[in-house]
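Minutes, project huddle
Topic: does the predicted pose make sense with zinc ion bound?
PN asked that the exact inputs be recorded in the minutes so nobody has to dig through chat later. Recorded below.
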Amino acid sequence: MEKYVNDDAIKLDCGNLCCPRCGDAFGLHSAGVEVWGRSHDAAQGLHVSINEVEFKPALVATTDLEDNPSSRRQGISVRFWCEQCAAGFALTFAQHKGSEIVTFEEHPELTKVVMKYMT
Ligand SMILES: [Zn+2]
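Predicted holo structure (tokens), as shared on screen:
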């Protein structure tokens, strides 16, 4: 899974978010969001997601923190897919000791769905 973690990974072109893989500024589509809420180092918290499954929105609310991008606090993940290169991505925000760590990485499950509908 490709991760785009350098300072150049997140680019805008005329206010449009560019695809981290192909660089195109006019092909990204948002496809869902996940939010993890957790107090400082707490063992339990909340996880809410609204994601498109096979292009139908689905809401899930659990206490599962397993995929939280932050190992200590809150995390956010926004999913995108690119119509130019047919790949899925997650833009994540992880709160950690006063830093907000931002990562763009490929999302293999979303890429499979996009490939299914684009080919
Ligand atoms: Zn692309």
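Observations noted during the meeting:
- Residues 3-118 form one domain.
- Residues 108-118 form the longest helix (11 residues).
No decisions taken; revisit at the next huddle.
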